[in-house]
Amino acid sequence: MKKLIFSMTFVFFSTLNCLERTTEKLNFSLSAKECIVEVVNECVGNIHVSTHNENTILIDILKESSSKECLQNLQVKIDKTDQKILISAINNNDKKEKTWFEWFSFTSYTVNGKYSVNGKSDRIDLKIKIPKNCALNIDLNNGNTELENIEKAISIKSNLGSITVKNAGSSVDIKSNNGTLNLDTIKGHLNIKNNLGSVNIKDINEGLVAKVTNGNVDIRNAKESLNVYVTNGSINLHQASVQDSGQIDFKTTTGSINLRLSSAQNATINAKTTIGSILINNKKVSSFKIGNSYRGSLGPGIQSKAKIFLKTITGSIEVNTL
Q1: pLDDT at position 14 over 50
Q2: Are 315 and 252 contacting, i.e. CB atoms less than 8 angstroms apart?
Q3: Cα dist. 58→49, 65, 101, 120, 155 in Å?
Q4: Which stretch of 234-243, 275-284, 286-295 has the lowest confidence by average pLDDT?
């Protein structure tokens, strides 16, 4: 099945490119009751993984390229051991020596509403179903990641692209260079490092450590300890409650901090901003000036081991109970 894409080459002339597409299906059984599935996509392309009740792995593969010859150089390899399944998407076209035309052409075209540049249309999309008793590792170069209903531990490394995780039954570890993170219903501990992109989190049960260089962090419905460190961006927490032994530790260099906590929250609070104001339950306890700090409590406070630490260099701090 072919899809025609019109493109302009801005060298000395224009040309017409034809995008080749093929689909494949892979299906194989597992002998181990538990295993680790590792998916590595070296190409441009998306990864979608969900679970099912069978002891098999199902893979739907979509390959796209500018020619049949290039299409044949897009491969998916599977290496299987007793405890680990490695699924690798490989672009052998990247290993070929470029012609003078490829070096000097700047072709742009649209693939499913997304732009590719510099004459590169190679992509491999993977849609995978794995058994519920398998942990999952993802290593993606350029594309979006979407995971649903993974019950075991998840580890994700992504260079460029958004990451969506829904209904994770265990711990989730994410290292992202550039992309928005959307995480919904995480039952295990959540650990995040993101260089560029906003982070949106909803419903986490066992704590969070997030380090973000550039981007806002928005958290809804959280329990246990929450540790968020941002360089450029704001931190917002909605409908959260800290257990007696837990803590909230939020720090940002440039950005505001806004907390909306349960009305039953009982904790000591320590807030500090270099340039900005501090409001506690709609009451301004520190005006906008250089060097503001506040120490106090929510509820009885002194009887609780729960602690809240808030610090920003440039930005205001606001804490309210619902």
Answers
A1: no
A2: yes
A3: 10, 23, 39, 28, 20
A4: 286-295
User: Model pTM?
Assistant: 0.85
Distance CA 276, CA 314 (A): 6
- Nearest Cα to Cα of residue 273 among 298, 310, 307: 310
- What is the rounded distance in angstroms from the CA atom of residue 181 to the CA atom of residue 200? 6
Token look-up 């499913």 returns 112
| Whole-angstrom distance, CA of residue 59 vs CA of residue 61 | 6
Model confidence at 97, in pLDDT bands (50, 70, 90)?
low
pLDDT per residue over 194-204, tens digit each?
A: 999 999 999 99
Contact between 289 and 265 under an 8 Å Cβ cutoff? The reply is no
Burial of 219 (0-12, 13-18, 19+ CB in 10 A): buried
Contact 229, 311 (CB under 8 A): no
The DSSP element (H or E) to which 15 belongs, if any, is strand 15-29
**What is the mean pLDDT of the segment spanning 22-49?**
87
Strand partners, 307: 247, 268
**Residue 294, φ and ψ in degrees, nearest 5:** -145, 135
- Chain CA centroid to CA 22, Å: 28
DSSP of 125-162: EEEEEEETTEEEEEEEEES-EEEES--S-EEEEEEES-
How far, in Å, CA of 161 to CA of 144, rounded? Answer: 5
CB-CB contact of 126 with 75 (8 Å): no
Mean model confidence pLDDT for the chain: 83
Residue with tokens 């072709």: 107
